[in-house]
């Protein structure tokens, strides 16, 4: 029996895959520039804020023991896994918040699936600033990191044969 055959809870699996879909959807619907004030990408805003909304129960479930034990990787694999997961969690929080901030700086109306949210800063004339630039770049970086995460899961499954993909499969 593979050492990683214990599955995540159904809640964790649903949150994981909804988060993945929301991240990809937000990236695909991203738009930039001042024209977002006149024609705000409401689907992008909603999907990005959905990522933020999903990360809260995900963290709570993880901290409450929602992640099953697995054979501990050693050396650089253990370090890489911790750093990679830490960066993913950081970006799952930072990218939506910086997007909300950037939209607020642009003066764009912010909506979460029809629910209007308040701006978190005052609008400015000109460029929205370095946080908006971070948001744009971090949005792409989270996809790269998530792709690496998926590749590592595939490597674990088909090279190490440790059952990693079954742990998070939606069955």
Task: Outline the structure in words.
- This protein has 171 residues and is mainly alpha-helical.
- It has one domain.
- 65% of the residues lie in helices and 4% in strands.
- The protein contains five helices and two strands, in the order αααββαα.
- It has helices at residues 10-28, 42-66, 76-106, 130-160, 164-168, and strands at residues 110-112, 115-117.
- It has a two-stranded antiparallel sheet.
- β1 (110-112) and β2 (115-117) form a beta hairpin.
- α1 (10-28) runs antiparallel to α2, α1 (10-28) crosses α4 and α3 (76-106) runs antiparallel to α4.
- The longest helix is centred in the middle third of the chain and has 31 residues, at 76-106.
- It starts with 9 loop residues before the first helix and ends with a helix.
Structure at a glance:
The protein contains five helices and two strands; from the N terminus they run αααββαα. It is mainly alpha-helical.
């Amino acid at each position: 029996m593979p050492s990683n055959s214990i599955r995540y809870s159904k809640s964790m699996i649903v949150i994981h895959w909804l988060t993945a879909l929301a991240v990809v959807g937000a990236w695909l619907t991203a738009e930039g520039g001042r024209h977002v004030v006149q024609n705000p990408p409401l689907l992008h805003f909603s999907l990005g804020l959905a990522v933020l909304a999903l990360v809260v129960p995900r963290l709570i479930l993880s901290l409450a023991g929602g992640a099953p034990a697995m054979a501990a990787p050693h050396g650089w694999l253990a370090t890489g896994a911790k750093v990679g997961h830490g960066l993913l969690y950081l970006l799952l929080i930072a990218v939506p918040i910086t997007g909300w901030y950037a939209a607020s700086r642009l003066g764009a109306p912010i909506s979460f699936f029809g629910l209007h949210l308040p701006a978190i800063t005052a609008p400015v004339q000109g460029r929205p600033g370095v946080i908006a630039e971070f948001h744009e770049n971090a949005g792409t970086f989270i996809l790269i990191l998530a792709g690496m995460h998926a590749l590592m899961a595939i490597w674990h499954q088909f090279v190490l044969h440790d059952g990693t993909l079954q742990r998070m499969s939606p069955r």
